[in-house]
Amino acid sequence: MSPWLQTLKDISGYESPQPKQAQVGAILDVPNSNNNITMIGTQGSGKSTYLAMLLIAADRLVAKTPADKVFQCLLEEKSSNLEHCKSALRDGHYPPKTKKLVSSDVNPALKLRWANLTTVFGRPITTGEVVANIAAADLAGEDLCQLIEQCSNIRNLGEAEKVASQKIVSIIMNTSAFIFIVKSTRLQGLSPTPIEQEPTSVEGLSVYSDANFKRMLDGIIRYKRLNRRSPPIRSIAFVFTAWDMLAPSAAGIETVTGQSFNPEDETISQECLSKLTMACLPSTWAAVKSLGIPNVVYFPSWIKTEKDPDTGEPRIKKVSMFEPGRDWVDNVNSIHYSENFCWKQINWIKEYAAGAK
Ligand SMILES: Nc1nc2c(ncn2[C@@H]2O[C@H](COP(=O)(O)OP(=O)(O)OP(=O)(O)O)[C@@H](O)[C@H]2O)c(=O)[nH]1
Ligand SMILES: [Mg+2]
Question: For 323, phi and psi rounded to 5 degrees?
């Protein structure tokens, strides 16, 4: 599809009829504006790492999917480096910093697809297909920061349309679900963990995550109110990256949630996570609450690190495939990370795409 036609489609919300048995290339080319999810986070907030973790978890889900079901993860990397990011994590390193976009191309396109597989007259057919598009998923933080700045300046439809003529913005504005990537060390008020400030290389950005997310959300809400063709927000997920770094703040967190805190505890309740968000991202939490979305979901994300004996620096701890008693297939080139939360996130994406939320 030509870039101008794609842009026109994004702005107008126009969708051409889709062939039933679409090929992979066609699937990636045709956005379905009802099922678009956008992942947003400021510079260095952990977007690439989280997306790579999600894709590693998706690979494992594919391996575990029974023969009568289909689960596919279709990634069109464009200029992004996600396959490299996955391998880097599996090799024990964090991915490199994402490069800034040089063109209006938005990368990457990611599609998750679920279906049931049946055989009719000897031919395999799929039924009950659910498809989710995850767009603009791994932009460099700088590009997203420009977006925050532009969104916060929208005051009327003319300005909204001017901003939306850019591909990145138009994709985000055609989205009805957001995954906010928040770095845990940038949450305010969790002493004794020192607050890491947001990088402010882009003018207009605050050193505080709460201020940046609130501005971005306000811009998106204002745009959606002004532009009726933009689908309303149906679902929001918060992902707290580098959750493992909160271990020293356990006492403060326990005061807020009323429960004992261990970053690797995957049974932490949504209520606890909502309380923490209310305490540490108060303006963003209030803006999300006022939207009245029934299911706002929170996902902690952590990676286990160990000290490198040579450099003393933290490095990602790998799972050994060949330890005695280990099932190597189940541990193939893996790392210790919040896999269960990644699977829950994939399920959240499925439920959203199926219109269940
Ligand atoms: N301890 C810990 N650190 C993390 C985790 N996730 C990310 N980080 C740290 O955060 C840094 C930035 O992560 P990236 O995934 O590159 O962040 P990004 O949002 O893609 O950054 P840009 O693309 O540059 O905007 C990493 O190099 C790690 O140092 C985590 O789960 N645990
Ligand atoms: Mg990145």
Answer: -65, 145
The predicted structure's pLDDT at residue 183: 95
**137 alpha carbon – ligand 2 mean position (Å):** 9
Range of lowest pLDDT (74-88, 89-103, 168-182, 191-205): 191-205
Distance from Cα 105 to the centre of ligand 2, integer Å? 16
Residue 315's closest CA among 332, 339, 336, 301?
Answer: 336
Listed in sequence order, the DSSP H helices in the chain are: 3-12, 24-29, 47-64, 82-90, 141-152, 157-164, 167-173, 209-226, 250-257, 270-280, 282-291, 339-353
Instruction: Please give the tally of structural domains in the chain.
Output: 1
Residue 307 has pLDDT above 80, yes or no: yes
The CA distances from residue 5 to 12, 13, 26, 167, 334, in Å, are 10, 11, 15, 11, 41
pLDDT in tens, 173-210: 778 899 999 999 999 888 766 678 888 776 667 888 89
Is 207 domain-assigned? Answer: yes
Q: What is the pLDDT of residue 98?
A: 79
Does 16 reside within a domain? no
Whose C-alpha lies nearest to ligand 1, atom 32? 242
| 27 Cα: distance to centroid of ligand 1 (angstroms) | 30
Tokens linked to 183: 């770095």
Average pLDDT, integer, range 98-118: 75
Specify the CATH number for the domain of residue 49: 3.40.50.300
**Residues 296-301: what's their mean pLDDT?**
97
Range of the domain at 74: 3-11+25-302+337-353
Ligand 1 contacts (CB < 6 A) are 41, 43-49, 94-95, 97-98, 140-141, 241-242, 244-245, 301-303, 305
